Amino acid sequence: MNISQLSYSKHCILVHNNREYFINYRPIKNCIEILLSNSKILQHFIFKYENKKHQGEKSYAEQNSGNWWKYAEASIPSSACILSLILYSDATTTDTLGKSSLHPIYISLGNIPTWRRNKEDAKQLLGYFPILFAKNEKEKTSPEFKKLVRETFHKSLKFLLDPLFENENGIDYKINNRIIWFFPKISTIIGDWPEACTYSLTYKSASSNFPCHFCLVQKNDLIDTMQDQIILRNHENMMEHFNNNTGHSVSLEPVENYFWNIPNLNIYAATVPDRMHHLDLGLYHYQIKFTKGILGRSSIDKMNERIGAIPRYPGLKIFSKGLQSIARLTASKHRDLMKVIVFVVDSLLSDDLSEVYVKWNEINNTRMNLIVTTCYTCYM
């Protein structure tokens, strides 16, 4: 996707401190039309729910095999199809619209199989949210400014997404010279942890009483994975706290959530962490940093020697000089490092250290499966 060649419209979403803040955007219907006009995508496009089974038991693969799709499809006419919307956003610095910090948001479709959706042409840049600037440090830390930032973000979402939901009778798209009747439904929102909190309007601080945007488990109890009764966040219980002005008791921001009015969506379950931030730059990074912290200088040198001695292999990144600075490692380099780290740390400290990495990779594989299962099966 050549971002510099894309044309944008501008809409003023806010005037604050005598400064106008604009959304630079592309109409969402046009973005979807571009995806649906791609013949390579349409070869594998998914239209209907599939009740997949393996050895007599329910199994899950693509989105259309999950409970969310099943229930969403049951809520629309049988002759219509679900158009599953996947949103991804993350604040960044860009040169496209002048050197500035902006907040891009992308759209893809859950109707596209995962392997095909990972290709560049299977997603569209929907636009850029503005990032608000405070006039001074006092305003920046004030509750009023914090609330304004949240309100502006959700006001921007409403402006971008409302054209898809303004007609309760769905929307028609032309596919292979046929008119297909679709009902757009938001299935998944991908982002890092702060981004998830912005969409769900829960407190961003990990020190808050209820730091998880999925559930209502207090921070001191999150380590107790054996809890039988876990209350999940949903639109009903969060709206009740919002209307009763008791949102602070469940770490909920005093801002009305745009997604509360979107059908077949639980924003708290639909907002999931992406692999890059959650695993590659999060847990992987922490584990390597922790390992270096418990090793002595000589053991770290030995670890770097082993990493540098690994021979070249197709598809595997080689660290010829060892780990000079993990702070500069990209997500893909972290993934490559985790493929070999089990053998690198073997007997450096004790046999337990390499076993920790074996278990660590098993946990991460399970965690990824849980993320996928949450996306496809655990909410309506």
Radius of gyration: 23 Å
Q: What about the largest sheet?
A: 9 strands, mixed
Secondary structural class: alpha+beta
- Work out the helicity level: 25-40%
**Segments where pLDDT lies below 50 for 5+ residues?**
370-380
Shape designation: globular
- Mean pLDDT level: 84
Number of helices: 13
Q: H/E series, N to C?
A: EEHHEEHEEEHEHHEEHHHEHHHH
Number of strands: 11
Percentage of residues in strands: 15-25%
- Rounded to the nearest angstrom, the distance between the terminal CA atoms is 32 Å
- The protein's oligomeric status is single chain
Pfam family, one: Plavaka
Verbal overview:
- It holds the Pfam family Plavaka.
- This protein is of the alpha+beta class.
- It folds into 3 domains: about 1-190, no CATH class; about 195-270, no CATH class; about 280-370.
- Helices cover about 40% and strands about 20% of the residues.
- The protein contains 13 helices and 11 strands.
- The strands form 2 sheets. Strands 1, 2, 5, 6, 7, 8, 9, 10 and 11 form a 9-stranded mixed sheet that branches.
- Helix 10 (about 275-295) packs across helix 12 (about 330-345) and helix 12 packs antiparallel against helix 13 (about 350-375).
- The longest helix has 27 residues, at about 350-375.
- The chain is globular.
- The two termini are about 30 Å apart.
Topology:
Elements lengths: L8 E8 L2 E7 L2 H9 L2 H4 L10 E2 L2 E2 L8 H8 L6 E9 L2 E3 L5 E10 L4 H4 L6 E6 L7 H4 L2 H23 L5 E5 L2 E14 L1 H8 L34 H9 L23 H4 E3 L1 H20 L2 H13 L21 H14 L6 H27 L3
Parallel strand pairs: 5-10, 10-11
Antiparallel strand pairs: 1-2, 2-8, 3-4, 5-7, 6-7, 7-8, 9-10
